[in-house]
Give the backbone structure.
Amino acid sequence: MNTKNDLILDINNLVVHYETVEGTVQAVNGIDIQVPHKHTLGIVGETGAGKTTTALSILRLIPDPPGIIKGGEIFLEGEDILKISEKKMRKIRGRDVAMIFQDPMTSLNPVHTVGAQIAEVVQLHEGLSRSEAIKRAGETLEMVGIPAERSTEYPHQFSGGMKQRVIIAIALACNPKLLIADEPTTALDVTIQAQALELMKDLRNRLGMSMIMITHDLGIVAEVCDDVAVLYAGRIVESGTVREVFKSTMHPYTEGLFNSLPVINDKGARIKPIPGLMPDPIELPEGCAFHPRCPYAFDKCTKETPELRYFGETHGVACHAYDQTGFKLKRRG
Amino acid sequence: MSRYIFRRVLQLIPVILGASAIIFFILSYSNQDPVMMLLAGTDPTLEQIEMTRHQLGLDRPIWIQFFSYMGGLVRGDLGVSYSTGREVFKEYMLRFPATLKLAFWALFVSVLISIPIGIVSAIKQYSWFDNFGMTFAMLGVATPNFWLGLMLIILFSVQLGWLPAGGYGGLKFLILPAITLGTGQAGLATRMTRSSMLEVIRQDYIRTARAKGLSEKVVIIKHALKNALIPIVTVLGVQFGHALGGAMITETIFSWPGVGRLMIDGINKYDRPVVIGCVIMLCIMVSVVNLAVDILYAYLDPRIKAGYSK
């Protein structure tokens, strides 16, 4: 276990709801996340599992209304950012914690030059003059592999992969301590995905950042992350080091995710999707939210919500099945 | 860019000629006879009537009249007023500065009201301010100018005696007409600002801007407003163009010596050259302002600028 001092980020029992006319969307229902310095945590889950909501909470950028952080604590280097003023929070955004958003096509402002969009952050947080900031913007562009001369161009003059590089440059311009990447490669071609990922990995190592990588791609997790947390219906169902979660999978949902992947060695093998759909976050099923889709579910799963229990130091699983001694998943292989 | 502007200016020519032809025939076939109007009250003989008709060239076949008028038009000659005998173009240019002044200040009032209210209404959607703003906008659109003008006169000129009820002169003559015309314009512009801002503030790049740690003011003004301006500028441009062509009602209420009143006088006297001339000039004003707005787009959005130079 990590001591508090080693942690850049420590989230305790975070609850985030969206209160809409149709009902309360229970997006995040009590999440605990710890990220040690210079570590990379992968957050995995289906669309609607609460990944982006968790990420936006760290920046306190949940759209309000309708989003409300109902409870919990988010410690950034020991300080609970849910308790500080908006003014202080603004100093953290972009300087200590930066975020890379999902869709590069829409995440850049079409009416400002890319150089200006990068320069803006450094000017704001590092108190540089306009001309110094523009110079820094050029250097940052070079760092992500774009010639500095292109800083006077507008986003529409860049391809999707280049735009994502610009977004990475904006995020890294102030050397943040924590970088949150929200499905940074989902909108890109596969070849460009690999490039962008390689770039992020390289820069993370060079700049010594911690990182949260939000994705639904298990391949990316294996490639980039140290630890991983699997999210389902706003709860962590399994967490641990990548090795633990990948090699000795314990939660039925995680097992389902792996079974839905194509197997490269066995071309005849059929993909086994998880039956059913994600539950409606307005009406989550009672007990374990996964029980209607779970092949191992029994009585208790429909009544009580399972807590995360630890097997070993870091490997946590929220599943009642482990009440039964000797329970093992049927995972193939 | 300059090629684009040149092309657009060329496109104005058929528009103006077409509009002139339409208005010419509409007025020619109306059953009001300008000769009778001109000679009204003089108890003319048949010879006098025929003589006047001949002098005005109205005894010629309509096609001849048309080509003669259009021939003058391409040379920049808008004809001669039936009632005053002066050149329409000179008459128009004499009045135009007053109209330009009113149109400009009305635009100023409109921008001053609509943009701040529209922005705050969008940011605080469904709040009491938004409800207030939208009620104001609806009233602005729905209130007829003549009523608003009269109410302002009653309040500020008759009751309080602060401002003149009409006439032309310094700033104090300008205030009431500019508010009358500007508030009417602001209604639509406020709604447009709100809806355009509402769309923009939901965009991903606004979230990116917030994630940079920028203050809400910078996010809204620098990142949102510039993106939201295009529909707003469009509405303001159309309104400004129309006001340049003459705000007939407002100018009449406040005895403002602009081209709107020239046109109204022309209509009342069946002074065909004046009316056609004013309509053509209105058409030119609207077209020129539209062109100016299109050029302005290029400065607001680099993607549009790139499109122009293709």
Notes: Chain A has a mean pLDDT of 87. The first helix of chain A runs from residue 51 to 58.
